[in-house]
Amino acid sequence: MPRIIDLTMPLADGARGVEIEPTCRFDRDGWNASTLHLYSHCGTHMDSPKHVEAGETTIDEIPPERCIGPAWVADVSGVGSRDLITVASLGDVAERLAPGESLLLKTLWSRFAAEPKYRDALPRVSLALAEWCAAKRVKMLGVEPPSVADVRDRDEVRAVHQVLLRAGVVVIEGLTNLDRLRARKVILIALPLKVRRGDGAPARVLAIDGDGADPWRALLA
Fold it and tell me: Is-contact 202 137, C-beta < 8 A?
């Protein structure tokens, strides 16, 4: 039976880059409303080329057709803390992924979201894998850590992001629930907030898991 799996982390007040301030109260104002203060790369989010000066495209200019399509799920959970995810880590997905398809890297790292190591000791995409994704014309690359690169290394952050974003690869970071995906190939839908001239934005990310059935049929059912 096809399933829709939410790959999005909730935006909770007090999380890194998230402040939610009550603005109106039902008993006082007649309705409830809040003011949101959000870092553009908080929680589950999408990067635009502007993020690392990899081009002029901003988050609101990424075409919607770049944000939906078939995606392979590569189980790279054997990659350890601070280790590099390489092309070899992908196993047979490296051979099966066709140009224009997307790639999800299942590290199971989202289970550490409340711990310092989530940001400071993340497994990251090697520069060679980023170059492979660019050459393969990968549509979207989704990862569980908050970055595809070591956030403590500016040179690495710049290099890996620029290779991907200059090639038009849509970068999605901070995913969760990849362990709930049963199929090796799903339909990935990633819709960022349409922030004008944005360098990135939080996104709602869903996977349609056909669990052996055609996921496109599941999408249209």
Answer: no
What's the pLDDT tens digit per position in 30-74? Answer: 999 999 999 999 999 999 999 999 889 999 999 999 999 999 999
Q: What is the CATH number for 153?
A: 3.50.30.50
- Report pTM: 0.95
pLDDT tens-digit profile of 200-209?
A: 999 999 999 9
Residue 157 structural domain: 3-10+40-220
- Cα 175 from Cα 108, distance rounded (Å): 10
C-alpha to C-alpha distance for 134 and 161, rounded to whole angstroms: 11
